[in-house]
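User: Design a sequence. Structure:
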């Protein structure tokens, strides 16, 4: 009797284990589908929680429970085989802002990467490297990530195109500058973001990276509109990831062009003064003849 009871209990335990495993797999698949379809709604719902985290607030018990359950369901966030290893969705970010400054000033401010950390919240540091390269440290939520960026194309007062790579994602982006009036410039920012890693993919569902970029873009608008500092931007030119004209060469060309314009202006004034010299001489002779006749 005892052996029979133990055997029956083992069979029931084995059956329950199989049922738990099947239910766990089904639950994981359903959660993945829901995450794909309801990403935007989750972003709205969790926006408040993300704001608390970014402003220094903490919800440790909620955070541990949520991340613990997600890791259990998706196998700890590892890139295992199966449905969870599908192609990562790209996040498209398109923003347009108008700034009340001339187009040259707007462009020059943007090229001063090293100053971004002084007026944005997401950029921790940025430094220009060799030629077309630059190094960035960016904060998204509670994490700080490093990025290696390469400028693929840079045309002064027109556009900057770049790519960047990091341990937790890659980006492709373009910022273009459009003169609306002599003192009003439109800036168009387009970014493709490819997240990599558990936290980044989860943050991508909540649109954390997009919100961070949009907020910092507005901080740029505020800074360049209100600052009284004259920007000293980089005026060089880059094509296909290579510097084809250095900053110094560009400045020399601008100065030479300015000197030529000054010479042309001076020549034009002299020509205007001598435009009718013969007519003036004839008028003087006629006046002299009239005086003699009288």
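Assistant: Done.
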């Amino acid at each position: 009797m005892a052996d029979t009871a133990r055997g029956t209990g083992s069979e029931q335990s084995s059956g329950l284990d199989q049922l738990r495993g099947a239910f766990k797999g089904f639950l994981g698949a359903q959660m993945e589908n829901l995450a794909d379809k309801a990403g935007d709604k989750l972003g709205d719902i969790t926006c408040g929680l993300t704001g608390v985290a970014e402003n220094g607030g903490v919800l440790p018990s909620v955070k541990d429970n949520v991340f613990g359950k997600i890791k259990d369901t998706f196998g700890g966030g590892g890139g295992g085989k199966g449905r969870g290893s599908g192609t990562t969705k790209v996040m498209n970010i398109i923003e347009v802002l108008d700034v009340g400054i001339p187009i040259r000033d707007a462009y020059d401010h943007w090229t001063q990467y090293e100053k971004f950390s002084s007026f944005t919240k997401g950029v921790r540091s940025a430094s220009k490297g060799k030629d077309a390269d630059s190094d960035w440290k960016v904060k998204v939520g509670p994490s700080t990530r490093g990025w290696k960026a390469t400028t693929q194309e840079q045309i002064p007062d027109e556009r900057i195109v770049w790519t960047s790579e990091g341990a937790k994602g890659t980006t492709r982006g373009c910022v273009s500058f459009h003169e609306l009036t002599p003192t009003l410039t439109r800036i168009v920012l387009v970014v493709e973001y490819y997240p990599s890693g558990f936290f980044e993919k989860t943050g991508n569902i909540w649109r954390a990276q997009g919100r961070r970029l949009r907020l910092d873009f507005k901080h740029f608008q505020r800074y360049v509109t209100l600052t009284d500092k004259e920007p000293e931007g980089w005026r060089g030119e880059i094509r296909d990831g290579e510097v084809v004209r250095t900053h110094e060469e560009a400045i020399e060309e601008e100065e030479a062009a300015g000197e030529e314009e000054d010479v042309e202006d001076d020549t034009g004034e002299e020509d205007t003064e001598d435009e009718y010299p013969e007519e003036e001489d004839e008028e003087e002779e006629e006046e002299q003849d009239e005086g003699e006749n009288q």
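The chain has two domains: 12-79, 91-245. The longest strand covers residues 143-155.
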